[in-house]
Design a protein that fits this description.
It is a single chain. The chain has 239 residues and is α+β, with helices and mostly antiparallel strands. It folds into two domains: 6-82, Phosphorylase Kinase, domain 1; 85-220, D-amino Acid Aminotransferase, Chain A, domain 1 (2-Layer Sandwich). The protein is built from six helices and 15 strands. A five-stranded antiparallel beta sheet has the order 1-2-3-7-6. A five-stranded antiparallel beta sheet has the order 11-10-9-12-15. A three-stranded antiparallel beta sheet has the order 8-13-14, covered by helices on one side. The longest helix is centred in the middle third of the chain and has 24 residues, at 145-168. The radius of gyration is 17 Å and the shape is globular.
């Protein structure tokens, strides 16, 4: 990224100004974090796998008519994206109970949630991303009532498309975190869709195939990322 102007550096990605207006370059770094950044490491090639999987799934969603910020992959760790005015919400769609929803509510691990449950959190590390309800979201004026309905409809459409695709690869989509922004007045999917933002289980064994392997020391993190990337993309992510 020599010479490019750095605009933002998050926990695992950096955003640079693109060469044309309303275009940005997203770099996927090898950093990996958990538990609000209290656990952190650098894992070689992790950024390349997440970039490749995200590009593949963005392309899949675009073919299904879902607007994303993705414009193309530039190299192994970077992609060109549309500039969005980001909405500070994390929209989590849960198909099975796992993680915080089990800790905080009387669900059992792996319990099927039908229909899927949408949980929306405020994207604010300083407040530990608190959960919001619709009234709070509207009172904070983060979106309009119509936009809130649209966010949920798009999130469910994304969840349905990815669930069906991953099921065909022998993978259960347990839950996924989505972030959205506005581009030319339209709600658009941003951020990434990767092993860092999805909870994935092997259909046959129930084995974790996502960042939980890192969070809870379940085994070989990069071996897991490599294997799931190969399954999702049909071998396009070999690095």
């Amino acid at each position: 990224m020599k010479g490019a102007q750095l605009l933002y550096s998050g926990k695992a990605k950096s955003i640079y100004r693109g060469e044309t207006p309303n275009r940005l370059i997203m770099e996927f770094r090898d950093d990996i974090t958990a538990f609000d950044g209290t656990k952190k490491n650098v894992l070689s090639e992790k950024g390349a796998f997440n970039c490749c999987v995200s590009a593949f799934l963005f392309e899949l969603l675009e073919r299904e008519g879902i607007r994303t910020h993705y414009l193309g992959r530039l190299d192994r760790t970077t992609m060109l994206v549309k500039a969005l005015t980001m909405i500070p919400l994390e929209v989590v769609v849960r198909n099975r109970a796992a993680g915080s929803i089990v800790r905080n509510f009387s669900f059992t691990e792996g319990q099927i949630l039908n229909p899927p449950v949408i949980v929306i959190d405020l994207k604010d590390d300083s407040r530990h991303d608190p959960m919001l309800n619709d009234d709070l979201i509207l009172a904070l004026k983060l979106v309009t009532p119509d936009e809130l309905v649209e966010l949920k409809e798009i999130a469910l459409a994304i969840n349905g498309t990815l669930s069906e695709f991953l099921d065909g690869q022998g993978i259960l989509l347990v839950d996924l975190k989505l972030e959205f922004g506005r581009a030319e007045g339209e709600i658009t999917l941003g951020d990434e869709i990767s092993m860092d933002s999805m909870r994935l289980w092997d259909k046959e064994t129930g084995r974790s195939m996502d960042k939980d392997v890192y969070r809870f020391d379940k085994g070989d993190v990069m071996g897991t990322y490599r294997a799931v990337a190969r399954r999702i993309t049909g071998g396009r992510c070999e690095v």
